[in-house]
Amino acid sequence: MKKVLVTLLCVFPAMVFAAGGNIPLDKANNDITDKASLRNGAETFMNSCLGCHSLKYQRYNRTFADLGIDEKEGIETLMFTGEKPGDHITNNMPEAEAAAWFGAAPPDLTLVARSRKGADWIYTYLRGFYVDPERPFGVNNIVFKDVGMPHVFQNLQGVQELSDDAKAMLALPTKEQRPLSSDDLVMVQEGTMTAAEYDTMVRDLANFLEYTGEPSKVDRIRLGYWVMGFLVILFILSYLLKKEYWRDVH
């Protein structure tokens, strides 16, 4: 009996993760070392997302330092409600009121890239809203079924609907359905941005949220190059030393 329980405990988590692994994601192709992209993403977040979502594990001054933003400039362009640079990035929305408006309080997004599937998931999510009259805010999402938030960038991206083929597929029995993808979406009303402009904006936002999930990643990548270089040099020196030691033997 013990062996059975241990086996189930080992297998069950794998099944849970595998169940969510078949959703087709678009490639964000983001670069976490691109500070211009990170700054653009930070600006988009502070202006469009912070009203509902916080980054409670991230501080303003750490963000300024990592993204190469002068503190005075950061205060003027990214801080709007009287916080101090050393404060965590939070908002003033009462959780109870947020839950009443949206059905659930909007989640903190500091670790969303780590808890989901990285920047690719965020990128696909922000491009994946489509019209669904049955949802409270009139939209659904290809990677987050029955999403509980409005499409805040709809005026920028435009209005998308499911293709006729996708609608027909969803009318099939559940076991015959497949996951939705961006290929199932059709633009029916253009937004104020071109598709390329919108993709760049949400790529930068996804890039910023990947950074907040692990701010030290940029330093780790930079340090990794130095470590690899050191190991290459060490290998060469070790090889030459080995040849010197064994020269008389051979």
Automatic annotation (TrEMBL):
KW Nucleus (keyword) present: no
Keyword terms of this UniProt record: Heme, Iron, Membrane, Metal-binding, Signal, Transmembrane, Transmembrane helix
InterPro entries tied to this protein: Cyt_c-like_dom (IPR009056), Cyt_c-like_dom_sf (IPR036909), Cyt_c1 (IPR002326)
Transmembrane segments: 223-241
Protein localization: Membrane
Signal peptide bounds: 1-18
Cofactor: heme c
One Pfam short name: Cytochrom_C1
Protein name: Cytochrome c1
Natural source organism: Thalassotalea litorea
